[in-house]
Structures are given as structure tokens and as C-alpha cells.
TrEMBL record:
<protein>
    <submittedName>
        <fullName>Aspartate aminotransferase family protein</fullName>
    </submittedName>
</protein>
<dbReference type="GO" id="GO:0004015">
    <property type="term" value="F:adenosylmethionine-8-amino-7-oxononanoate transaminase activity"/>
</dbReference>
<dbReference type="InterPro" id="IPR015424">
    <property type="entry name" value="PyrdxlP-dep_Trfase"/>
</dbReference>
<dbReference type="InterPro" id="IPR005814">
    <property type="entry name" value="Aminotrans_3"/>
</dbReference>
<keyword id="KW-0808">Transferase</keyword>
<keyword id="KW-0032">Aminotransferase</keyword>
<dbReference type="InterPro" id="IPR015422">
    <property type="entry name" value="PyrdxlP-dep_Trfase_small"/>
</dbReference>
<dbReference type="InterPro" id="IPR015421">
    <property type="entry name" value="PyrdxlP-dep_Trfase_major"/>
</dbReference>
<keyword id="KW-0663">Pyridoxal phosphate</keyword>
<dbReference type="Pfam" id="PF00202">
    <property type="entry name" value="Aminotran_3"/>
</dbReference>
<dbReference type="GO" id="GO:0009102">
    <property type="term" value="P:biotin biosynthetic process"/>
</dbReference>
<dbReference type="GO" id="GO:0030170">
    <property type="term" value="F:pyridoxal phosphate binding"/>
</dbReference>
<comment type="similarity">
    <text>Belongs to the class-III pyridoxal-phosphate-dependent aminotransferase family.</text>
</comment>
């Protein structure tokens, strides 16, 4: 059934996706592990919305916290004033991140969090009298949202193509994608140190005193669940420390339990200087992002000899309703032991993911925590077409998956049980067996 033409305006208004216009797949309600579509079909949520619903849909505590706050304080500027929930949340977030950071800055999205983190990094060096450190380093195939900062440090060609020129002075580390391909085996490949040493090459090329920060997704999500090889992130940390470069982890996807730990930084035991997050922070209920920064970064601003001109902030930073949702999300994590539950599911999940090996078209499988990338052999001359077909078939069969290129990315709510894993991979196997 065809939907009205105007439907195309609410998502990707620049694209001319006729297939989507014909069937936008309207979701009308959600609870726990399932969506319901406009035709009343139950759809198992294999993607936690868009990687953003760790505690499952319609969590009563979060829903009522939001309702209550709207009634009590619908808006309060955090510019030159504040409200208690913003401070309570900061305290709870410090707790949740094990007091490794000194400060948190609220944004409304992951893209804003990334741009904020990049701006903090640039201003930090200026505050210390090292204003020559303006170069930013991302990673090829990194995804850091759609702001100009995030686009510039991001490495996905098609996303950047129509919007140049982007920020000058940006380099991209080689990605791990091709190197990891066909890594069906469960052991992590161990060329991480070697790969991270590419950063030393860039440092030698440009001089450390020109480099402000390196930004990286610990596990890249939107480009198809690229798990870093052993030692990669630790080595990046060492190199950044050695040269006075700030290390930024973009944990918009990996934060809030995706790897069964609070953040990926905990999983890999590497401490970034700045860390961005969004999505799961409010369980997807209200838009919100955040940037965590180490105390020494904040101190540099406070101690800047001549003071420093710095303006940055959003009208909706620390929105009371978002803070209420985030506080209730953190409480739900504790009360329902979301991380412990996710850990308990991991082995069963991993077995189920690896059981996809050998199914038609599957050329690679990657998984870590409760996230997986299943890569399909592309149809010649039509990149992405096979996975998109899988997406459509899966949806029609009551399963929501996400595709990026010819990679199927799976990231269900962390509350899933074994029966959901069985249902997800049972449906996916059927889909794979029936693709062109
Ligand atoms: N960084 C990463 C790693 C992301 O995955 C995303 C979104 N998928 C973003 C930034 C941007 O977040 P948002 O869409 O909330 O702006």
C-alpha cells in the first residue's frame, strides 16, 4: 500500500527512496522486546530501536518518571541556572562510570555530544597555551554523527560527499574492516598493536604538537560491528598519553551496557580522556546525549592563566524531562540488574550468532557483548541490495534488524531471554535461506 508523498519528509529528506515511500513500515506501539506495526503485527526488536533501548520498551519506571517530570517542571534553562534533576543525574552518572570522570556535559544527541567533545578538546589545548594543537584524527569507516565536526572526523565517504569542504586538518587512521574480514573464529586477532602504531606514523608526519585529539568508536557500530583487534585500544591510549593527545571514545552505541559492561571503556580496560554517549542514556525515551571529561580537562579551563573565551551549550542541555528519564534508566539498570542479565545471556548469544556461519551468503560474522555483525556477500554491482532485501523480508516476518551496506547489525534490548535469541536467529536463518 502506498503512503502519501509527504511521508518522505520526516527521515532523510534528501534521499529519494521510492521503496521507503511505498512502505515506510509504521510502528505504532512497543513493549518489552516487541514493536507492533500499523497492521497489528508483533515485531521482535533485534536492534533496540536504533541501538537505544537497553532496558526494553515501555519500562514502567521510566515512563512514569517522564510523565511526572512533565507535570512538575516542563522546562528549565540550564543556562545561568539549573534544576535538581540535572545535578542528581550528574552524580549518578559519575557513579555509573566508576568515578573515572570529573564532569559531564549534557547534549541532546550523539552528534551534538561528538561536536561538543571535539570543541572541548580544541579549547583544552588553548587553555594550556598549546593553541597549535588543532589537528583531529578519526578512523576510516568511523561514524560520529552528522554534525560538521562528526562528519569531518567520521570516515564514511557517502555520508561526507555532498557536504564539503569539511573541517580542515583531519586525518583518518586505517580501519580494521578488511583486516578483520572472514574472522569467523572466536579468538580476537592480535595485530592490534601494529595497527595502532599507524597513529605514530601520523604523529611523525605532522608533529605531535599539532594534534589535539584522536576520536574512535571502541567497537564501530554503524559501519558494521568492527571489533578492534587485541591490544588496539590500549596501544592508542599509550601513544596519545606519550604525545599529549587527548583520546576520545565515542560510546554513543557502546555505552549503557551494549558490551555487558557500563561502557566499552570498562570492557577493554582503557580510560579515554573524553567520552561521548547518547541513545541508551534515557533508554531511548527522550533525546539526550552527554560528554564525560576527566577532571584534569576541566581544571585546565579553571587554571587558564588569562582566562579563556569559551561559549558552548544548547537550549535543551539538561532538559528536566530527559534528566528524569536518564535517572529512571540508571535506576532500572540497578533494580533489574540489566548488566548482569546481559552478561548471563552472552554465551548463548555468541553461540547463536556463530550458528549463522555456513548459511547462504554469509561471509563474515563478528560479535562482542550483545551486538553482532553478519556480513553478506554483495550482489554483483548492487552493494547493499542483498542486506536490504534481508531487512524487508525479516520485517515482513516479524523481526527488526538493521543493515549497513551488506552487513546485518544486531543489537537487541539487553533484557532479552533465551527464547528471544532463539526467535531472532530462527527468523534470520529463514530469511537468509530465502534471499536472491
Ligand atoms: N556516534 C556514534 C558512534 C553513533 O553511532 C551515532 C548514531 N548512530 C552518533 C554518534 C550520532 O548520534 P545521533 O544520531 O544521536 O546524533
Amino acid at each position: 500500500e502506498s503512503r502519501p508523498e509527504s511521508m518522505s519528509a520526516f527521515w532523510m529528506p534528501f534521499t529519494n527512496n521510492r521503496d521507503f515511500k511505498a512502505n515506510p513500515r509504521l510502528l505504532v506501539s512497543a513493549e518489552g522486546m516487541y514493536y507492533k506495526d500499523v497492521d497489528g503485527n508483533q515485531i521482535l526488536d533485534g536492534t533496540a530501536g536504533l541501538w537505544c533501548v537497553p532496558c526494553g520498551h515501555a519500562q514502567p519506571k521510566i515512563v512514569s518518571a517522564v510523565r511526572e517530570m512533565i507535570g512538575q517542571l516542563d522546562f528549565a534553562p540550564t543556562f545561568q541556572m539549573g534544576h535538581p534533576a540535572a545535578f542528581d543525574l550528574a552524580e549518578q552518572l559519575m557513579d555509573y562510570t566508576g568515578h573515572k570522570f570529573g564532569h559531564v556535559f549534557y547534549t541532546n544527541s550523539g552528534s551534538e555530544a561528538v561536536d561538543t567533545a571535539l570543541k572541548i578538546a580544541l579549547a583544552y589545548h588553548k587553555a594550556r597555551g598549546e593553541g597549535g594543537r588543532t589537528r583531529l584524527i578519526g578512523r576510516e569507516r568511523g561514524y560520529h554523527g552528522v554534525g560538521f565536526g562528526g562528519l569531518s572526523v567520521g570516515g564514511i565517504g557517502p555520508n561526507r560527499k555532498s557536504f564539503g569542504p569539511l573541517l580542515p586538518g583531519v586525518d583518518h587512521l586505517p580501519h580494521t574492516h578488511n583486516l578483520l574480514k572472514n574472522a569467523f573464529s572466536r579468538g580476537e586477532p592480535d595485530f592490534g598493536v601494529e595497527l595502532a602504531d599507524e597513529l605514530e606514523r601520523l604523529v611523525a608526519l605532522h608533529d605531535a604538537s599539532t594534534i589535539a585529539a584522536v576520536i574512535i568508536e571502541p567497537v564501530s557500530g554503524s559501519t558494521g560491528v568492527l571489533v578492534p583487534p587485541k591490544g588496539y585500544l590500549k596501544r592508542l591510549r599509550e601513544i596519545c598519553t606519550k604525545h599529549g593527545i587527548l583520546l576520545i571514545f565515542d560510546e554513543v552505541i557502546t555505552g549503557f551496557g551494549r558490551l555487558t559492561t557500563p561502557f566499552a571503556a570498562d570492557y577493554f580496560e582503557v580510560e579515554p580522556d573524553l567520552m561521548t554517549t547518547a541513545k541508551g542514556i534515557t533508554n531511548g525515551v527522550i533525546p539526550m546525549g552527554a560528554v564525560f571529561s576527566k577532571k584534569f580537562i576541566h581544571d585546565a579551563f579553571m587554571e587558564a592563566p588569562a582566562g579563556i573565551e569559551l561559549f558552548h551549550g544548547y537550549t535543551y542541555s539538561g532538559h528536566p524531562v530527559a534528566c528524569a528519564a536518564a535517572l529512571a534508566t540508571l535506576e532500572t539498570f540497578k533494580e533489574q540488574q540489566i548488566l548482569e542479565h546481559a552478561k548471563g545471556m552472552q554465551a548463548y548469544w555468541e553461540d547463536a550468532v556463530h550458528a549463522m556461519k555456513g548459511l547462504p551468503h554469509v561471509i563474515d560474522i563478528r560479535t562482542i557483548g550483545l551486538v553482532a555483525g553478519i556480513e553478506l556477500e554483495p550482489i554483483a554491482g548492487k552493494p547493499g541490495a542483498r542486506a536490504y532485501q534481508a531487512f524487508k523480508k525479516a520485517f515482513a516476518d516479524g523481526l527488526l534488524i538493521r543493515t549497513t551496506g551488506d552487513i546485518i547489525a544486531l543489537s537487541p534490548p539487553l533484557i532479552l531471554e533465551k527464547q528471544h535469541i532463539d526467535e531472532l536467529f530462527g527468523k534470520l536463518a529463514t530469511v537468509l535461506k530465502n534471499l536472491d
